[in-house]
């Protein structure tokens, strides 16, 4: 492309009046080796734009976030808590029952010893009765 | 929308999203994080995607907004590394060597532009969007886009000419 034309395009370019097609022409011109010496500063500019466009995003994009793991973790934690509270409650119930059982047993034991004391006394009374019958010779 | 279908619609412009994020956030790592986050957001809102005329334009607008939010929160945390903090440490020789590398010079010139001009330069001169698309993306009038773009291009050119003359003399 002739120089006059390029200069005109550059003027339009600076006023932001060029179309995309015209800007592509400018980019093509400045990427060639035949740039007029007085326009050399534009070469850096258009060269930079062209190289910038080649930059790529190289990492892989993850659509699942790590946040979901935290959510599952909290669900698991609450389950564990629930289970442990439940079993703890069960254990506690059992202990309570054992305690009541022991107390009842003790009370029953006490009752039975006292009852046995009663039978011994009655046995003595029976002895007394036998002796009395011997003496008075009842029919 | 199925995952494969989703990927087919959104993957073609992942580089554009990444480049826009990098233009605004500067660091590659942050741009990668932003891209990842953006695609995750798109995936979560996949049911709403078909309501949009152009998913690409929607994604670019989202990227822009997300990056602006990131920049705002970075400024708020006030741990930002300001250029002037370490510029003085450069030896003149080092600086001149960097500036002679004209491509990195253009990169720096764009970095110093206001956010809006950066965006317009990126969308027009790198990604080659039409003015109407840019106007819609940035929620501006097409004429305002032209004015911003013209300003940005003239600034870059002026700086380059200045640098060029300085190099020659």
TrEMBL record, chain A:
Domain of life the protein comes from: Bacteria
Protein name per the record: Uncharacterized protein
UniProtKB/TrEMBL annotation, chain B:
Annotated signal sequence range: none
Family: Belongs to the sigma-70 factor family. ECF subfamily.
Entry keyword set: DNA-binding, Sigma factor, Transcription, Transcription regulation
Pfam families: Sigma70_r2, Sigma70_r4_2
Listed NCBIfam families: sigma70-ECF
Gene3D superfamilies in the cross-refs: 1.10.1740.10, Winged helix-like DNA-binding domain superfamily/Winged helix DNA-binding domain
Organism annotation: Lutibacter aestuarii
Annotated protein name in UniProt: RNA polymerase sigma factor
Boundaries of every RNA polymerase sigma factor 70 region 4 type domain copy: 106-155
Residue ranges annotated for the RNA polymerase sigma-70 region domain, each copy included: 12-75
């Amino acid at each position: 492309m002739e120089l006059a034309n390029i200069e005109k395009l550059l003027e339009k370019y600076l006023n932001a009046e060029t179309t995309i097609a015209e800007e592509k022409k400018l980019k093509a011109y400045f990427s060639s080796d035949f740039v007029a010496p007085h326009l050399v500063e534009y070469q850096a500019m258009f060269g930079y734009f062209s190289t910038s466009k080649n930059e790529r995003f190289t990492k892989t994009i993850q659509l699942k976030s790590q946040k979901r793991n935290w959510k599952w973790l909290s669900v698991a934690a609450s389950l564990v808590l629930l289970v442990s509270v439940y079993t703890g409650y069960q254990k506690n119930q059992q202990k309570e029952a054992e305690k009541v059982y022991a107390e009842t047993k003790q009370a029953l034991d006490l009752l039975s010893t006292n009852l046995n004391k009663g039978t011994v006394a009655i046995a003595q009374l029976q002895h007394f009765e036998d002796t009395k019958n011997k003496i008075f010779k009842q029919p | 929308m199925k995952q494969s279908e989703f990927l087919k619609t959104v993957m073609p412009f992942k580089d554009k999203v990444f480049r826009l994020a990098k233009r605004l956030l500067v660091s590659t790592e942050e741009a990668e994080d932003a891209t990842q986050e953006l695609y995750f957001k798109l995936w979560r809102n996949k049911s709403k995607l078909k309501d949009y005329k152009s998913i690409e334009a929607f994604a670019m607008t989202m990227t822009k907004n997300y990056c602006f939010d990131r920049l705002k929160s970075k400024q708020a945390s006030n741990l930002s590394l300001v250029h002037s903090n370490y510029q003085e440490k450069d030896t003149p020789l080092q600086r001149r060597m960097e500036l002679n590398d004209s491509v990195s010079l253009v990169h720096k010139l764009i970095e110093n532009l206001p956010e809006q001009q950066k965006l317009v330069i990126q969308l027009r001169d790198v990604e080659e969007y039409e003015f109407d698309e840019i106007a819609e993306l940035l929620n501006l009038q097409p004429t305002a886009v032209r004015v911003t773009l013209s300003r940005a291009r003239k600034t870059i050119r002026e700086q380059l000419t200045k640098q060029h003359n300085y190099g020659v003399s």
